[in-house]
Every structure is written in structure tokens, then in C-alpha cells.
Specification:
alpha/beta; Immunoglobulin-like; five-stranded antiparallel beta sheet; 10 helices; about 25% strand; binds zinc ion
Length: about 425
């Protein structure tokens, strides 16, 4: 999916712009001499996240100013030092919303950071307590004021392409050989099948980290893009990526995106990690109704589900519908379809790679809980195993594993074409 416009899928998360707002964050008895550890910027087409990490909680004020548009953040309790300037200078400037970042001493012990903005934004501010390797974090999510929902864009774009693609499809039939990347070409479905591909983690949440320093979030994004290309090349599939770059997406938002486009399938891509470095092989998971089938499955589910904690979810803004969605247990039918799909993929991956488990495992993954969409999670290999970490970085392995997943999906749909929805 090609995001051309700036937009926001997260209208729910916004609150109205306040021209001038003061937020007191963290404990009031803040100790002077707090140290900034890092300033990070995560740009995406949907929003830009600015994270300020420090060793103690910070007291900050922020103001939104116009003509020109800028966001001014005053941080109390820290003096301007060369290290802060250095941190700020690392911020990339090719951001969709931020044109420049400046820093100065506003008052003694008050450091002012100014974000010059390319357009009017609506900020969302929240704090995150220390978790994992992260210390205290102050987070600004900057949403464009005039935003467009990426999911709506996806639907509009696909509606326009409908006719052209039908012509292309017929033309392809006449050519005999299709450009279908070794997938079935005998089937021309009455309507395209919509698949939501969900690259795990992203942004502030690196996922598992290999011994050589490989981030799970990076390899799974690469594999997801390859899978998208293969499936789109087949002609029957339309793909929505729940994230198409390095930014954080809350778990429930991933599911919401898939439901909004009425996806026929949701497939989350991950790379496993375990405390024992010799653990290896790919595995495929479906949702479990009763609980994890094995202790390892439960362990992995807990780890993947903690993404919102690590990546930084603004829990305050969860509304009732979202909470209900999260609590809504998947139906037996969804799990049955997911197991069937999972088995189809396990067979394809097992044909060339080591499997961690020869059958589909079941666990309570938050991203698999859409009650009406067959949903699976593929752990493509163990990133914690040095040999497999190297494989995950290898273009050949990435291609083979993507093709295996695509074949598994294709074979599943040949036998389980969704007839319950209008074409
Ligand atoms: Zn993961």
C-alpha cells in the first residue's frame, strides 16, 4: 500500500488542539540534575513520534504556536549542555511534519526545545514508566490537523483500480503464463482477497534483538514487504500493511486496521527469541481459546503481547469500543480456519526450513483476536540463535520464507474461498 498523503488512522487517540497547554508530568518533587538519555524521532506517514528519554521523570510544559507553526517544549530541571545539543542534532530532518529542531536555555534549569513544523499538528502527550532497557520516557505523538485515514485511502484506491485490474487479469489469462511467482494461476476470484500483513514491533519497540545486534522489527518489515510483493504479483490479492515503515503501532490498532478493510486474513510476521541460544526453527501460531498449548507458547505470547508496554501505548485514550474489541474472544470458527491456514503454511515452510514445531501452536496473542478474521502469527526463525539471525538477514532466506508463506496462503484460499461476503 502506497501512502501518498498524510493522514491518521488514530482519530480516536486525538484530543482537540489546545493553543497553549501546561501539563505537569511525573512526581512533583523532581530532583534537579535529571539527565536526558536520548531524544528520538520516529516519523511515519500516519504520525511522528518524538520520545525524550531521561533518568528521572521530567516536568515539562508545552505550547503550540502559529505563524510559523511550532511546538515549544520546556523541560524543567535540566541545564543546557553540549550533550543535549548533540542529542537534538541527531534528530532527522526529513520528517513529514518536523522541519527543524532547535534547543536553547530558556531560564536557569529550564531547557527549551523548539520543533519547527511543516504544517499544523495536533499533539498527544503522555509519559511512559521505565520498562526493559528504557528509562522514563516523555512521548509526543504529532498528528496532522488535516489528516486522512490510511485505511480509507486504501479502500478508495482499490475501488478505482478495480476496472484496470480486471482488464489486466483477463489479458494475463490470454498470455498463458502468468507473472505469478509460482503461485496458483488457475483461479480468478470473483473479488480480490484482502490480506492484512502485520510486521511485528516497530519504532520504540525493537522486538527481539539478535546477538549480532539485529532488530526483529527490521527483518520482519523486510519479510513483510517481500510477502506483499509476491502476493500482489499473483493478482488475486490486495495487501494492507499494518505498518510500512519503522514506527510503532499499538496491537489493537493493527487488528482495527484489518477489520476496517474487511480483511479476509490477518498474518503477523515475527522472529522468535528464547533464553536458550540453541532454540531454532520457524513456528506458526493461531489463537488459543483456553490458554497456551505449551509453556513455551505462553512464554512467547507474553513476550509479543508486551509490545504495547515497550513501544509506548497511550492507555488513557483507549475507548470503550477498543476495550470491548480487546476483550472479545475469538470464535471457534475463526480458530478453526486459522489452524487450517496455519497448517498450510507450516507445510510450505517445513519443505525447506527447520520447524520449531511441526504443527500449528496456539496461544493468546493480542493481535490474533479479531473474532471474524482468520489470524495467524508466523515466527519466521529464532533471531536469538546466531545461525538463524544470519539467515534472517539473508536475502535468499527472506525470499524463500516469504514465498513459502505466500504459497501456504494461496493453497488455503484455493480450498477455502470466502463466500460469506459480497463480491
Ligand atoms: Zn515479535
Amino acid at each position: 500500500m502506497d501512502f501518498k498523503k498524510r493522514h491518521s488512522a488514530l482519530r480516536l487517540l486525538k484530543y482537540s488542539a489546545v493553543a497553549k497547554a501546561i501539563f505537569i508530568l511525573g512526581p512533583k518533587e523532581i530532583a534537579y540534575g535529571a539527565n536526558l538519555i536520548a531524544v528520538r524521532v520516529w516519523p511515519s506517514e500516519v504520525y511522528t513520534r518524538v520520545t525524550i528519554e531521561s533518568d528521572t521523570a521530567l516536568i515539562t510544559n508545552f505550547q503550540l504556536l502559529k505563524d510559523p507553526n511550532r511546538l515549544v517544549v520546556d523541560i524543567q530541571g535540566i541545564d543546557l549542555s553540549s550533550s543535549i545539543k548533540e542529542l537534538i542534532s541527531k534528530v532527522q530532518k526529513n520528517d513529514p511534519y518536523i522541519s527543524n529542531v532547535r534547543v536553547g536555555l530558556y531560564q536557569p534549569q529550564v531547557t527549551r526545545i523548539v520543533f519547527d513544523l511543516k504544517e499544523e499538528i495536533v499533539p498527544q502527550l503522555f509519559t511512559l514508566n521505565p520498562v526493559g532497557t528504557y528509562k522514563h520516557r516523555l512521548v509526543f505523538d504529532l498528528y496532522p490537523k488535516n489528516s486522512q485515514d490510511p485505511v480509507t485511502t486504501f479502500l478508495q484506491k482499490n475501488a478505482r483500480q478495480e476496472d484496470e485490474e480486471e482488464i489486466a487479469r483477463i489479458a494475463k489469462q490470454f498470455q498463458g503464463k502468468s507473472l505469478d511467482n509460482q503461485l496458483s494461476n488457475s483461479f480468478k476470484y470473483a473479488r480480490p482477497i484482502i490480506i492484512a500483513i502485520d510486521p511485528g514491533h516497530g519504532g520504540e519497540d525493537p522486538g527481539a534483538i539478535g546477538m549480532a545486534g539485529t532488530f526483529e522489527k527490521d527483518v520482519v518489515l523486510a519479510i513483510s514487504h517481500r510477502l506483499k510483493d509476491i502476493l500482489e504479483g499473483q493478482g488475486n490479492f490486495r495487501i494492507l500493511l499494518t505498518r510500512d515503515a519503522d514506527y510503532f503501532v499499538p496491537l489493537h490498532t493493527r487488528v482495527q486496521k484489518a477489520r476496517k478493510v474487511q480483511a479476509d486474513l490477518f498474518i503477523s510476521i515475527h522472529a522468535d527469541a528464547f533464553v536458550l541460544p540453541h532454540a531454532k526453527g520457524a513456528s506458526v501460531f493461531a489463537l488459543s481459546q483456553q490458554g497456551a498449548t505449551s509453556t513455551a507458547a505462553r512464554w512467547i505470547a507474553n513476550k509479543e503481547n508486551s509490545a504495547d508496554l515497550i513501544g509506548g501505548l497511550n492507555i488513557k485514550s483507549k475507548n470503550v469500543d477498543v476495550a470491548k474489541l480487546l476483550l472479545d474472544m475469538a470464535t471457534t470458527a475463526q480458530i478453526k480456519d486459522s489452524l487450517r491456514l496455519g497448517n498450510s503454511i507450516v507445510k510450505e515452510i517445513g519443505a525447506f526450513a527447520t520447524l520449531h514445531s511441526k504443527s500449528v501452536e496456539q496461544a493468546n496473542f493480542a493481535v490474533l483476536k479479531a473474532p471474524d478474521i482468520p489470524s495467524i502469527l508466523v515466527e519466521t526463525a529464532f533471531i536469538s540463535n546466531p545461525e538463524e539471525e544470519a539467515k534472517l538477514l539473508d536475502e535468499g532466506y527472506q525470499k524463500r520464507v516469504s514465498l513459502a508463506i505466500a504459497k501456504g496462503i494461496d493453497k488455503y484460499f484455493v480450498q477455502n474461498y470466502p463466500t460469506n461476503r459480497p463480491g
